[in-house]
Design a protein that fits this description.
The chain is α+β, with helices and mostly antiparallel strands. It folds into 3 domains: 98 residues, no CATH class; 85 residues, no CATH class; 125 residues, no CATH class. Helices cover 32% and strands 28% of the residues. The protein is built from 13 helices and 15 strands. The protein has an 8-stranded antiparallel β-sheet. A 6-stranded antiparallel β-barrel has the order 1-2-6-5-4-3. A hairpin with a 2-residue loop joins strand 7 and strand 8. Helix 3 packs parallel to helix 7. The longest helix is centred in the first third of the chain and has 19 residues.
């Protein structure tokens, strides 16, 4: 299977005209909702940030297990008009499924109460849990809030217990316990580190991040994990760079990583980015990562970026990745 998350993200940022048109029609019909992050993929959220919603919709194989149809103009291809209409109908059905907001009673408790405020900072649930051994200090109780979009945005409240995580800064993640539930559910807050080194420290990446492999040009490269960590430590001073300003959304080379202590709830939408976590290295001099929710980038300079890539290509053990 190709690792498209590394090499084809820019293509995913450009949807075909039919899919985009269908999406925009749905957005126009969607209800306006408050500025809270939902626990399911819903187009109303896309209305607030359409530039992010389109790539999410185009990553459907990760969310549904079903390959999204490729829509073509029958006038300019060998696809028949009937076949094209079937594909368009299929695409619209997928969008309809994404637009549908579950009834309040259909939701689990972590889908119902998804927002809370702690010390003035807003946190939202990311559909992940942690084991009890990851739980740190008990901070107290607070009110978690949920909204029923199917009932004119009716607000619901419940009291939750709030905990820190032993290995993570509370400026990033907290854990909550819902009444009548033993599990610990993870909430995150908006987070923009000043440097990559701050991200390493705040997320305790030396302990929580696992290096899975390196991929480049549809091939896997085996390198010592110590080599990768030496590179990551060497770029600690790299400053944050907004990818929507630099327009660099992916790297030519990708370091696949995981954070095993964060456990995705079975059957739940993975809010904190895809299960395919990565650190992309761009020849333009940036690293780009999705290890904390939204896409973030850091300016490491072209010299360090290209030196890392050349070292991997020249010294790594290459293995072809089958489609």
């Amino acid at each position: 299977m190709k690792h498209d998350v590394f090499t084809h993200m820019n293509e995913q940022m450009t949807p075909d005209e039919q899919t985009l048109d269908a999406l925009l029609k749905k957005i126009k019909c969607a209800k306006k909702r408050p500025a809270v992050k939902p626990v399911w993929i819903a187009v109303p959220a896309a209305a607030a940030c359409a530039v992010i919603a389109v790539p999410v919709l185009l990553s459907l194989p990760d969310m549904t297990g079903t390959q999204q149809p490729v829509l073509k103009n029958p006038a300019s291809s060998n696809v028949s008009t009937q076949e094209a209409e079937i594909r368009i109908d299929s695409s619209e059905q997928i969008i309809d499924d994404l637009v549908r907001v579950p009834e309040w009673e259909e939701r689990t408790i972590y889908e119902q109460y998804t927002n809370m405020t702690v010390d003035g900072a807003s946190y939202f649930g990311i559909n992940k849990t942690v084991d009890q051994e990851e739980i740190g200090e008990f901070l107290g109780e607070t009110t978690a809030v949920g909204y029923d979009e199917t009932d004119d945005m009716r607000e619901y409240q419940t009291t939750v217990k709030v905990y820190t995580l032993k290995s993570i800064s509370e400026q990033c993640l907290l854990a909550v316990q819902y009444p009548g539930h033993d599990g610990y559910y993870v909430f995150e807050t908006s987070y923009t580190p000043a440097s990559f080194g701050q991200m390493i420290d705040d997320l305790n990446l030396e302990e929580t991040l696992q290096i899975e492999g390196i991929f480049y040009d549809d091939a896997a490269y085996e390198m010592p994990k110590a080599f990768v960590w030496d590179f990551l430590q060497d770029i600690r001073a790299a400053e944050y760079a907004d990818p929507y300003v630099t327009r660099v959304f992916s790297g030519e080379m990708g370091i696949k990583v995981s954070m095993p202590f964060l456990k995705t709830i079975d059957g739940a939408t993975d809010i904190m980015g895809s299960n395919d976590l990565y650190i992309g290295v761009s020849k333009e001099g940036y690293i780009i990562t999705n290890i904390y929710g939204s896409l973030q980038a850091f300016d490491i300079g072209k010299e360090k970026a290209n030196a890392f890539m050349e070292n991997v290509i020249n010294n790594g053990q290459k293995t072809a990745v089958e489609e």
